[in-house]
Amino acid sequence: MGATGMCRAFYKKDGLAALLMDFQMANSSEVLDALLVQPTSTGHAIAFNYLVPNVKGLQNFFHVLDSASTKTSQAPPSPPPTPIESAEWPASNTSAQDPNAVPSRASSDINANLSKSNTTEISVFAAATEAFSKANLNCSIAESLERFRPILLQAKERNIRVRGYVSVALGCPYEGPKTDPRKVAEITSSLLEMGADEVSVADTTGMGTAPKTRELLKALSAAGIVNHDIALHFHDTYGQALVNTVVGLEHGIRIFDSSVGGLGGCPYSKGATGNVATEDLVYCLHSLGVKTGIDTQEMAKIGAWISEELGKSNETRAGKAILARLRS
Amino acid sequence: MGATGMCRAFYKKDGLAALLMDFQMANSSEVLDALLVQPTSTGHAIAFNYLVPNVKGLQNFFHVLDSASTKTSQAPPSPPPTPIESAEWPASNTSAQDPNAVPSRASSDINANLSKSNTTEISVFAAATEAFSKANLNCSIAESLERFRPILLQAKERNIRVRGYVSVALGCPYEGPKTDPRKVAEITSSLLEMGADEVSVADTTGMGTAPKTRELLKALSAAGIVNHDIALHFHDTYGQALVNTVVGLEHGIRIFDSSVGGLGGCPYSKGATGNVATEDLVYCLHSLGVKTGIDTQEMAKIGAWISEELGKSNETRAGKAILARLRS
């Protein structure tokens, strides 16, 4: 198991938004162990997500999972819920530009499979460019996919949910801003065919722009990939994350990754900032009439708190503005 | 003349974007004097904008203008150019959402009136809510408009360009987020009828959202106000400035205010941050295919430099990312 643990939280008070809260952990085995032995008490379903780089990592993951299960005398985790809860999308006016362009069908269908239980899932990271794959995974894209195949197979045998990622989907620190959208679609398809429950298409460098996002989504659709198998993962490095999110919404995407306080980053993408801040994303979604069930004031407090705990600057505009208003 | 000087720069290398660079000055008479006696040398037309709160302020402004003119033995400033240069909007794909929704006609028509000379203009600030008008101007909205009438009359007699502003057009720190768009349209119309060359509709608090921006623009159009008489002025307090900009672009607005490094703020709007950063705005416009003629690397350097000079944090994501890439 890698040194990075990821806690993926799904909120479902009034509906649900899929939210990623990524943070670096000293030892993710310990985190997994703690979470399994002492599950968090929350009214919301939370998916705890663990990066599994190879089969050895998966075996470690199973080992921790099984020992924790023995410790708590609990059965292994229940079959994972469908990962997203459906946010309530307004019948109209969801979109800033063209309300008719936003179908609410996908999320409603998924709604039927909702489960309220927390779950544990694993993630595998592919890259959209050979150079980034080499830097991040030390192998070619094709080799990385072959490495993932047994991981997905074994995970599915144990009924563990798998999330695939395609990094640098809208620009690469090594190969530049023009990642081939057809290549992204090809890798996404491969991951889905191997059994990934969902693929997060990631703008790791933040080089994504509205037209590029649109082109990528068109390429994914053209490859036969349906919207509810995809999540979009934006970094706000160049300030374009919310504009790109609106493009995604209009295309029918309903799962967006983010991190409170805009935490995160990527060691292989110099100057990369963290994910778009959950506070900014949720503020934007709410402004468009989406009901996520998230209390933005509490979210803003969490962002400020965890940023301080980690000694990082709180990179959310909405969160800071909400807190400033609370103080005034 | 107020204590706030504003330098409004219009770039026109490949076309033009109207950009506001607002910064607080210790003494704007001195700034005006210096600029008139020693004009900046630049290949671009620059409009230097001075806030004139009342007739007394206008008289002071004329006084400085006339003495500077005597000092330099130059004629008073030449007739002001049409304030915006026309950026080159792409024939298609301008918009992130619907390229067909973005007519390029307005800016092309304006193009015909281009002038390359620098100019000096004045600005008057109205507010869209009674509470903000009282706090900012110490009078009702109606009284403020009556105060502006002789200012505009005298400015027009001297052939000085006038820019009107309508503050808190998308949310007020005192009256809340729901400013009446019809009231904004009414005040905008009044300013234009008095002779304002252009009115900047300002989201002073940053409470503007995509649907609210859209509703406001519809109200302005419904009141018979044409797009090329309007500028949009967003603050990125809640991170929504670029999403709102895209809404404005799609409506056909072509003038957007911003400030390098996201400088600025508003003493009467607690927690308000500065204008949206020029770096972020220009990066977004360029991503949509707009040619502004602005060198984003140089712009990023300026933002970092002036932020440091003023001891303020550099509030641009794009600018900082561009500089990080330059250093790597």
From TrEMBL, chains A, B:
Signal peptide: none annotated. It holds the Pfam family HMGL-like. It catalyses: (3S)-3-hydroxy-3-methylglutaryl-CoA = acetoacetate + acetyl-CoA. Pathway: Metabolic intermediate metabolism; (S)-3-hydroxy-3-methylglutaryl-CoA degradation; acetoacetate from (S)-3-hydroxy-3-methylglutaryl-CoA: step 1/1. One of its GO terms (biological process) is ketone body biosynthetic process. Residues 18-300 form the Pyruvate carboxyltransferase domain. Keywords: Lyase, Metal-binding. Residues 69-110 are annotated as: Disordered. It is an enzyme of class 4 (lyase). GO terms for molecular function: hydroxymethylglutaryl-CoA lyase activity; metal ion binding. Its EC number is 4.1.3.4. InterPro entries: Aldolase_TIM, HMGL, PYR_CT. PANTHER family: HYDROXYMETHYLGLUTARYL-COA LYASE (PTHR42738). Belongs to the HMG-CoA lyase family. This is hydroxymethylglutaryl-CoA lyase. It comes from Gomphillus americanus.
